[in-house]
Amino acid sequence: MKFQPDRSEAQTIRGYGPGWIAIDQEKFTSSLIISSQGLRQDWNCSRFEDLTPAHFAALAEIPAELVIFGSGTRSRFVPPAWLQPLMARRIGLEAMDTQAACRTYNILAGEGRNVVAALLLE
């Protein structure tokens, strides 16, 4: 039985709600990309319909073993052809709604995995 709390060196999503995500002690109200390796940057899209293949090509440039794509308020998938840059670099992608993506990112980052979360805030 384990009695001490889990601690992670990775940045952690502390909360989320309609239109916001809290990472560590900072609150964000626009789409963003974070990684367990410390990356935190804006993701220039505010709606699922704004996404283009270039958004996923940029994700392929980030060293990671897996990208968690939070597609907004509901789970949606992009055309498979958009994922070619990720597949070429052997980076996996899992798509889910943004709240599920936040929870999944925390679990994987807490395990020490090299994971990126691309989180769409609508």
From TrEMBL:
Domain of life from the UniProt record: Bacteria
Signal peptide region: none
Entry-linked SUPFAM superfamilies: MTH938-like
Transmembrane segments: none
Listed InterPro entries: MTH938-like_sf, NDUFAF3/AAMDC
Protein name: Mth938-like domain-containing protein
